[in-house]
Design brief:
By secondary structure, the chain is of the alpha/beta class. The protein has two domains: 3-177, NAD(P)-binding Rossmann-like Domain (Rossmann fold, 3-Layer(aba) Sandwich); 186-302, N-(1-d-carboxylethyl)-l-norvaline Dehydrogenase, domain 2 (Orthogonal Bundle), CATH 1.10.1040. The protein has helices at residues 11-22, 34-50, 61-66, 91-104, 120-124, 158-170, 186-202, 208-218, 225-232, 234-248, 257-264, 281-287; strands at 3-7, 26-30, 68-71, 82-85, 110-113, 133-137, 147-152, 174-177, 277-278, 296-297. It has an eight-stranded mixed beta sheet. Strands 9-10 form a two-stranded parallel ribbon. β4 (82-85), α4 and β5 form a beta-alpha-beta unit. α1 packs across α2 (34-50), α7 packs across α10 and α10 (234-248) crosses α11 (257-264). It starts with a strand and ends in a 6-residue tail after the last strand. The structure holds nicotinamide-adenine-dinucleotide. Nicotinamide-adenine-dinucleotide (NAD) binds at residues 7-13, 30-33, 36, 86-89, 93, 97, 114-116, 137-138, 140, 232-233, 236, 240, 271.
Length: 303
């Protein structure tokens, strides 16, 4: 079993830490926000306890949590063989973190970037170890999703790629190999779809519920694009489409103003209790009035 560092304890980092610890690995979970760590550990405990009820395997929550060390100090990563980075989709934040981590993490360790859109070669260039740098685009919720995109950077060594593939297999993941490009395969398509769906709501063509119903009822998708946006995080959608817009300098990726408005208002989706949908009366009350009149109540068990 490996010793794996997980940086960022938000939606993705918490899921990656849970999946790793449940698979028997030792995890060092680091976030610069102590509240995020507390929330992540509480979420992991709840997920493990609820697993059986939700049709999953019986999971011993205490055993899983006992494999996770956590804190705000990057020195926790010093002995990790692999470090999986899952911080906010923001170039400047990721840039500072990789510069710092490169000095702290042992030189033979492999860095894994979990990013929605930033090219892996660009992130790898921040470090002195571009051969030991791999992209993994995990899907959300991490413990429940069977596949990931696996992306080598320009200089990634075959050994580093296989090291990460082996770790993914131990986590129960199938790795789908794709080449390095902004947004990879999934988000080159998905972010445009979600952005355009937000524009339909912004222009009052349809409510969020109607947009999603078209995708569910007409196309047979299990979730519509705006339910998906709430699951991913409306802020993360905005940051990802901004990365695509900047990278390609192409107006087709221009972010919908509604995504900016919702991000500024803290309507980030499930993680804040309010997004295109409201996740319960207390969350709705805390978030204030609706944006553009597009919200509808949606219970957390909807997906
Ligand atoms: P999130 O906003 O839920 O969590 C980000 C976490 O990073 C926060 O807890 C924040 O405190 C922490 N953080 C920020 N700067 C930090 C730093 N310098 N050091 C340590 N911690 C720091 O975001 P998320 O949804 O978990 O996304 C994380 C990454 O994964 C992003 O790059 C995102 O694009 C990518 N991603 C997200 C999804 C998704 O569905 N949400 C899917 C695949 C990939």
């Amino acid at each position: 079993m490996a010793h794996v560092g997980v940086v960022g304890a938000g939606v993705m980092g918490a899921g990656v830490a849970q999946n790793l610890a449940h698979s028997g690995h030792r995890v060092a979970l680091v976030d610069n926000d102590p509240d995020a760590i507390e929330k992540a550990l509480a979420g992991i405990e709840t997920n493990c306890r609820m697993s059986r009820l939700l049709g999953g395997p019986e999971i011993d929550a205490e055993e899983v949590l006992a494999r996770i060390d956590s804190g705000t100090d990057l020195s926790l990563l010093a002995d990790a063989e692999v470090v999986i980075e899952n911080i906010t989709e923001n170039w400047d934040l990721k840039r500072s973190l990789y510069l710092e981590m490169d000095a702290v993490v042992r030189p033979d360790a492999v860095f894994v970037a979990n990013t929605s859109a930033i090219p892996i070669t660009r992130l790898a260039s921040l470090t002195g170890r571009p051969r030991q740098f791999v992209g993994v685009h995990f899907m959300n919720p991490v413990p429940m999703k069977p596949a990931v995109e696996l992306i080598p950077g320009h200089h990634t060594s075959p050994a580093a790629l296989e090291r990460v593939r082996t770790l993914l297999i131990s986590m129960g993941k199938k790795a789908i190999d794709v080449n390095d490009a902004c947004g990879f395969v999934s988000n080159r398509v998905l972010m445009l779809t979600v952005n355009e769906a937000a524009c339909l709501v912004y222009e009052n063509v349809a409510t969020a519920e109607t947009v999603d119903e078209v995708f569910r009822s007409c196309f047979g998708h299990p979730m519509g694009p705006l339910e998906t946006a709430d699951l991913i995080g409306v802020d993360t959608i905005l940051y990802s489409i901004e990365v695509l817009y900047e990278h390609f300098a192409d107006s087709k990726y221009r972010p919908c103003p509604l995504l900016k408005h919702m991000t500024d208002a803290g309507l980030h989706g499930r993680k804040t209790g309010e997004g295109f949908y409201s996740y319960g009366p207390s969350a709705a009350a805390a978030a204030g009035p609706s944006v553009n009149g597009h919200r509808a109540d949606r219970s957390l068990s909807a997906n």
